[in-house]
Amino acid sequence: MHGDDGGTLSVAAPGAEREFRVEYLTRVEGEGTLLLRVRGTEVVEARLKIFEAPRYFERLVVGRTGDEVIDIVARICGICPIAYQMSAVHAFEDLYGVEIDPSVRALRRLLYCGEWIQSHALHVYLLHAPDYLGYPSALAMAADHRAVVEQGLAIKRVGNQLIAALGGRAVHPVSVRVGGFSRAPRRRDLDAVRRALDTAVEQSRETVRLVASWDPPALEHAQPLVALRHAAEYPYNDGRIVSTDGLDLAPGAWREAFAEQQVEGTNALHARTHEGAVYLLGPTARITLAADQLHPLASEALAATGLRDAIRVNIHRSIVARAVELLHACAEARDLIDGYRPPVEPRVAFTPRPGVAAWSTEAPRGLLHHRYEVDEQGHVLHAQIVPPTSQNQGAIEADLAAFAPSVLDLPQAEATKRLEMLIRAYDPCISCATHFLDLSIVEAGAEEWTG
Amino acid sequence: MTQLAPPSVRLLVCGNADRGDDGAALSAVATLLPSLPSAMLERLEVRRCGHLRVEDLLEVPEGEVAVVVDAAVGIAPGHVVTLPIRDIVADPAAPTPRSSHELPVDQVLGLADVMRPGGLPEGTFVGIGGRRFGYGRPLSRSVRLNMPAFQAAIAAELSRLTHVPADRPTTPG
């Protein structure tokens, strides 16, 4: 019989089959279940089931123009709305042959910096740090590590400021338009955030040092990695889709290498390569595939950790990758503001044309692909939106299978904590809540105990 | 004798207009604001929050009070509640604002309490129970029918905090 929290799992006889089921609680955009089936000490099945109700955004945008689509898809996520706007706007501009002003391009990178700063700071400090410092939540952690939480909130606030300055408001910004922005900020509109970025850069540098000093659970499991790569900049809005397996595609050509598929037991489509392989997106992939394009300050900080190879094989080290990207985003944002000259016109005119509008950008959690079939009037006929979390599901399951054997003999509470921690390392949208797993253990033919 | 001026009030309006009852607060405040007396409006700073974040509460200056307006879970649809913000933290069973995304609301309020000098800002949560929060849905009938009561509760709280009667005729603009 299995014990409650703090108890020890029974050791199954060789060949006997057990199930480990981890139920998700709500508080999040997504809800799901982790199911582990174990035979002896071998994990024979690891499944992450997301049972969030379908949200029909791909249907909601049908019949809409590009500008309307940009506002609608921003509502998909409260943390990374800009990623959704950027993939959409670039897709339409690519189809319509729109050449945007270089200042507008810089503003879009700056806006993306804002999103990365607030999203990465949220995850590193408020969602993931409690795992490493041994607390059940950021609130509990704040009592003993006030300075850590203060630093995280301070950096996050700079991201909010940037988004509000460029996007009109910090959540679900409204300024992005096909051809540019509805309004471009004056240089002095950015003065306050520019000053704040000086501090944020230093705080982010300290963040890298801090998280690199934390010991992660052991795991060595290299997965195929996929990210954008650009010849001259760290990937946000632009670049080619590359992989550790030698892939090299235009940002709109995602479907040439990948496809979505319905998987039993989950409402989120899984994505695989055409050969059926899973792959990993996000900070781990970007650092591995594009570290040479990091801002010099971020590059230096990454080198000082000595963890670049460890990031590649242990997803628990993604917190270091995320912190390096936090520093990159703060440093690049500062440079972009220093070099900013408002465009003569915030937006250029365009003429819709029929065809396929497709593009990929780098959301904080990884590659986000949009594809729209558009008619002569510029109205969407069909849409496909492939978020990073659904692409990462297969990789999460593969890592769970690789990691689970190391926790099978731990007390139940500790096993639960380790599994939760692994899933949080991906920063999936479903981990918007801090601790959301409830581990139950089912032995074949026995009743279920809930931990 | 010197009279202390009543505090300024930061009105934090939470929710998404396109998510059914999650838009209740936006709808209520949008129609209520033009009817409020100018003396009250002068004391208000209205902020649209989307979802309530720790930073929204940390940024309330010392000496200001906050009124958080949102759809609520934990109460019957259409039911209107007014309670001190601190009571939400103190009582896990209390109705809570719906619009929290980054962190659960107990974490948002708890962190603000710990991190803000002086703790959580003084203030009130005014909520209306929501029934449905799906994208593209209109307000539910329960919320629509009780919208006047929701607006009255918000106005009453603003009146209490600003010391300006809510029923004073609006100054022509």
What does this 3D model show about the protein?
- The complex is a heterodimer of chains A (451) and B (173).
- With 451 residues, chain A is of the alpha+beta class.
- The model of chain A is unreliable at 1-12, 24-30 and 431-451 (pLDDT under 50).
- Chain A has 13 helices and 15 strands.
- In chain A, helix 4 (102-133) packs across helix 5 (138-144), helix 6 packs antiparallel against helix 7 (191-212) and helix 7 (191-212) packs antiparallel against helix 11.
- Chain A is 41% helix and 18% strand.
- In chain A, the strands form five sheets. Chain A has a five-stranded antiparallel β-sheet.
- In chain A, strand 7 (240-243) and strand 8 (248-249) form a beta hairpin.
- With 173 residues, chain B is of the alpha/beta class.
- In chain B, strands 1, 2, 3, 4, 5 and 6 form a six-stranded mixed β-sheet that branches.
- Mean pLDDT of chain B is 86; it is low at 168-173.
- Chain A binds chain B through residues 27, 29, 55-57, 60, 75, 78-79, 122, 126, 137-139, 142-143, 146, 149-150, 153, 156-157, 160, 169-172, 432-434, and chain B through 16, 18-19, 48-51, 53-55, 58, 101-104, 106-107, 110-111, 114-115, 135-136.
